[in-house]
Amino acid sequence: QKEVEQNSGPLSVPEGAIASLNCTYSDRGSQSFFWYRQYSGKSPELIMFIYSNGDKEDGRFTAQLNKASQYVSLLIRDSQPSDSATYLCAVNIGPAAGNKLTFGGGTRVLVKP
Amino acid sequence: DTGVSQDPRHKITKRGQNVTFRCDPISEHNRLYWYRQTLGQGPEFLTYFQNEAQLEKSRLLSDRFSAERPKGSFSTLEIQRTEQGDSAMYLCASSLALNQPQHFGDGTRLSIL
To answer: Given an 8 Å threshold on Cβ–Cβ distance, is B40 in contact with A34?
Structure first.
């Protein structure tokens, strides 16, 4: 079992719809959770982070964390063609693992006009 | 805030040659991380520094790889006797403190001929 798992997609959504991305992780000691957006050929760009159970909203993005079920999700509301990218889920297990980020393989999102 | 800077952006070299990459973190960020990303995969952790101390190295980092951060500011990653399998995007990230978000540079794309 991979430490961080994501559906590779592609997830195709019509413009204006909600894109829902999921990520599961295996280490119960994980402390912080991050979503990065990566356009083809570019480096990851931080879009959301969440530390506590529940929802966190920032503009059109909402991150949801459920530590008991070991999953974190990202909702993108009013999806735009510019949201077409690969979304990487990253987990920080904490000091015991050097605070490094462990990434999932990414979910490719395609927003169709 | 000038962001994380990496140099060069692209490097093409012949197998067996040595290469060195440089990363300048966001100023005042005392934690610096190196990751490697191959096509279709999420970034994989290589090593990280807190100030000038290298605190963890991944098993991915063979003896041909070495990283330094001599004065706790910029860092270099050297690969000796490059192999075809070293072809990848090498990403540098920095963070302000423990458990804080990591911000990535644009990466150095290495191609081995």
So the answer is: no
